[in-house]
């Protein structure tokens, strides 16, 4: 396999220029099969306001950080007659997301800020909600409901060690905020902390890389994931979590699903080169594969339902599917990939291959 050894990881670092995403992925509508799945697994909820209604602003004001740099977020300005309805609706959405609609949790909360980002596929609204009693704040996001993104969220919830909280209503996707230090900020400002075990960081990147390859989660550049740091009794533990699922099994280039090939991730590849050898890289890959098998076994009915829903859903182009199955056939030296007809067929075969390996 391309990424199993120390030399191959270094090779990946040298080939970063090969990875390009040439155009923005289209937004795929949520079809009836996926809607039925979401309703059954309590992801589909009736909400008081939609994404399209939030788009009814007249103008925006740029948002700058504390150093005066443009954040690419903007503050939308709404008509005064619309604001009360908007803020009350957003509080209700927060209650649905956090407490199954129990409005008691928002009795002392207020909508402090609404920000919009036209950059990216989902064009999200970021909502900041504040507890008036103690100024503790939280965030959530309102986005376009893109079917491939929803499949990415579901696969992350099922196949990764992370739980994902979101709800869908018509053309609207509500996502909980994922806490963590952006991956690019972490390597720039925190990774050199002498208290941090660099081997643990490298280990987590290898495991994250393996999850992306299996689940076909693409475009995991360092600014599309966060690092979560947890103090343990004798050390710090690290967990990389994806925060952007726009490129879930759409692209045809296999390297798009391998974080090791993006130039933005070179600091993580370098850590792996410096602190891991071929045997430990293989060991961590096998550990992650075993964890995925355990998750698949405990969620096998849910995975089957998700697969069935996806077979009726357009999620990529025939050209991309053909290119990717050929690429994965070469990557794994496995001709079974040539029989795949959809992107989810490729994910399913990835998982089956992992199960076969763990049984050996």
Write up what this structure looks like:
The radius of gyration is 21 Å and the shape is globular. It starts with 5 loop residues before the first helix and ends with a helix. The longest helix has 21 residues, at 278-298. The strands form 3 sheets. A 5-stranded antiparallel sheet has the order 3-4-5-7-6. It has a 3-stranded antiparallel sheet with strand order 8-9-10. The chain is α+β, with helices and mostly antiparallel strands and 360 residues long. β4 and β5 (137-144) form a beta hairpin. 43% of the residues lie in helices and 17% in strands. Mean pLDDT is 91; it is low at 10-14. α1 packs antiparallel against α8 (266-275), α5 (147-159) runs antiparallel to α10 (300-310) and α9 (278-298) crosses α12. It is built from 12 helices and 10 strands. The chain has 2 domains: 6-26 and 179-359, Phosphatidylinositol 3-kinase Catalytic Subunit, Chain A, Domain 5 (Orthogonal Bundle); 32-146 and 165-176, no CATH class.
